[in-house]
Design goal:
The structure is a single chain. By secondary structure, the protein is mainly beta. Helices cover about 15% and strands about 35% of the residues. It contains 4 helices and 14 strands. The strands form 4 sheets. Strands 1, 2, 3, 4, 5, 6, 9 and 10 form an 8-stranded antiparallel sheet that branches. A two-stranded antiparallel ribbon has the order 7-8. Strands 11-12 form a two-stranded antiparallel sheet. The longest helix is centred in the first third of the chain and has 9 residues. It starts with a strand and ends in a 22-residue tail after the last strand. The structure holds flavin mononucleotide.
């Protein structure tokens, strides 16, 4: 783990993907490894932490994920927007995308998945929960998060912290056709005032 990365308690792991970041799905099996972009992922359970991610059945990633029963989810920051788009537009079947793009991977602590820390805000290591119908009909893969870590400059004590100082690590969100927005415009919701009952306007 790089010095800025810290383990994230599993009860906080769902917060890493609660806001719908575009992620990098990493995978490895039979001496091969791969990485692809995925905009469609979400938490589906707090404890144990479970997520769902759409991994098209025609991708090389799906082949490796089913073979190993595991995958990694890495959250690229704005610095990796070009890389994210690139690995989402090419197949790893004939080429090692890590080598092609000079991506450095660390090994996941529980399942040994390749995980990317440089330029990423966080990662989750996930064990596939076999749901053949969902995988086949909806290309949706469910998984339990078994380990997670985040760069302390943007996520610590179970909370995100977006500021001008960590813009490079802020998560990216795909609008389509290579256009992304980054997270960062934080709005804090306040409790609404209870509406006054009808007919009491003007009454004191
Ligand atoms: C921004 C972006 C988001 C994407 N989101 C998804 C997704 O959620 N699910 C999916 O199956 N493919 C998604 N893709 C397409 C895959 O990343 C693409 O098919 C990739 O080439 C598969 O690589 P592989 O065959 O090496 O696994 C996305 C592509 C881009 C550029």
């Amino acid at each position: 783990m790089t010095p800025r990365f810290r383990p994230v308690a599993l009860e906080h792991a769902s917060r890493l993907v609660n806001h719908g970041p575009t992620v990098l799905v990493t995978s490895a099996a039979g001496g091969r490894r791969n990485v692809m972009a995925a905009a469609w992922s979400m938490p589906v359970e707090f404890t144990p932490p479970r997520i769902a991610v759409v991994i098209d059945k025609h991708t090389f990633t799906r082949e490796l994920v089913v073979a190993s029963g595991a995958f990694g989810i890495c959250l690229p920051g704005t610095a990796l927007v070009d890389l994210t788009y690139a690995v989402g537009g090419e197949s790893g079947r004939a080429v090692d995308k890590f080598a092609r793009h000079g991506i450095v991977a660390t090994q996941g602590p529980v399942l040994g998945m390749p995980l990317i820390e440089a330029g990423c805000a966080a990662w989750l290591e996930c064990r596939l929960i076999r749901e053949p119908h969902a995988e086949d009909a909806y290309d949706t893969c469910f998984a339990e998060v078994v380990a997670a870590a985040a760069d302390e400059r943007i996520f610590s004590n179970g909370h995100w912290s977006f500021s001008d100082d960590n813009a490079e690590l802020q998560t990216i969100h795909h609008l389509g056709a290579g256009h992304f927005v980054r997270a960062g415009g934080v709005l804090r919701a306040k409790p609404l005032q209870a509406p006054r009952a009808r007919g009491t306007e003007g009454a004191s």
